[in-house]
Amino acid sequence: MTTDTPPNATFKPNRSLADMDKDSVFHAMTSIADQQANGPVIMASGQGVRIKDHDGTEYIDGMAALWCVNVGYGREEIARAGYETLKNIGFFHTFTAMSNEPIIRLADRLLTVLRDEAGLDHMSRVFFGTSGSDANDTQVKLVRYYNNLRGKPEKKKIIARRGGYHGTTVAAGSLTGIPVYHKAFDIPMPGVLHVAPAHYYRDGLPGETEAAYVDRLIAEIRDVITREGADTIAAFIAEPVMGTGGVMVPPAGYFEQLQALLAAHDILFIADEVITGFGRLGSWFGSGFYGLKPDLLTFAKGVTSGYFPLSGVVVSDKIWAVLRDASPEVGLFAHGYTYSGHPVGGAIALANLDIIARENLVANAADVGPYFKAALKDRLADHPQVGDIRGQGLMIGIEYVADKITKQPLDPHNPASRRILAAAKDEGLIARAMPFGDVNSFSPPLTFSRGDADETVERFVRAVLRVLPL
Fold first, then answer.
1. What is the Cα–Cα distance from 178 to 164, expressed in whole angstroms?
2. Is 60 exceeded by the pLDDT of residue 337?
3. Cα 461 to Cα 22: distance, rounded to the nearest angstrom
4. Helix (H, G, I), strand (E, B) or coil at 426
5. I need a labelling partner for 371 at 20 to 30 A (CA). Which of 52, 89, 154, 322 fits?
6. Higher-confidence residue: 4 or 368?
7. pLDDT for res 4
8. Residue 253: helix, strand or coil by DSSP?
9. Interatomic CA distance for residues 156 and 52, integer angstroms
10. In 3D, which of 260, 278, 277 has the Cα closest to residue 269?
11. How much is the pTM?
12. Does the pLDDT of residue 10 top 70, yes or no?
């Protein structure tokens, strides 16, 4: 038996957790240099809207982790649901027509909620995955599969929006329209076309009305369709409210005109509801709130409140009919993941949905969200570097500018949002700095109360004034 030390390892007795992390963990969405220099913040426990790190410091989690812990932390009924399913079966797959009770009940319940709460009577089946990224990868494959089966093999391109976030896998990362997610990865892949986001505050021209701005956006998309040829474009993907791009709320009339244009050219509409689903906007789904009728819908995050990795794609009757009718000739639908339809995820999602319904958390988001936004505006709207405070429900963005008239950004090499993020952490508050524009965002758990909003505003205002003093 050899006792040789691996060449890249150094024996360090009595290492701290932070040192172990620095020596062992390859972090997602992290500057390697920062992690190696400063180490991690190690979270240890949470209850409600608050979370504690390993050193015992408590924070208000103004982001619900990553837009996802909708029912808040410390939910024992969710833990029990997971435990019982782990004890009874643990895992089995859904390949070759295998199934399990939790995932069957979850699919049925999701379709019921979509039909009853979002007016999506045309949605037909649910395909499960584990993350929003893999779900949007599934969307890319589905639109290709659908068009191949109906004899339109040239119809493969997908239009996405600059600033949109749809994941980080090769296909989903290509749909994402934020340059930092493409840098050094050789994406986007061919066949993805990016158009302007719908952000009237930042992109509206001087003197341009909101209606005229929408007309200009739609004209750009129409021009892309004309240039590329409608027979080559398969789908358009959009978040009802753009999240990571800076909490961009769509201008009035945008989605109505967009959907009419897509339908006229036989282009599928994919609604990415990874963030906006399950109550975030004060409505069960963004599609219901904005009157969308997607052909395909992506969900993740809030379906389990992040307590278990679970995502999915909901397909419409139109899509399902083509897949079903071609099946005898085509045979196996050769797509899926080992954990598609994981029974533990199904059980946890059902328990999570029970909490959202029983505690009226969607209505709470609809009540507390506007209160929170109004409180932020009351304290910060007159600040000379706070350009815009916007949002819908419990999804809010604060954008910084050098000048309110010109809307010129502050130092792009040292964004105010990143400095405010660090200051907020010192105040015991977790927010987020967006990678597309100088924007801080909030998306707290849907259990967020008016009292929580008041305390968050106080901490955040102190952080803003530390970085941008009057």
1. 7
2. yes
3. 33
4. helix
5. 52
6. 368
7. 53
8. coil
9. 47
10. 260
11. 0.95
12. no
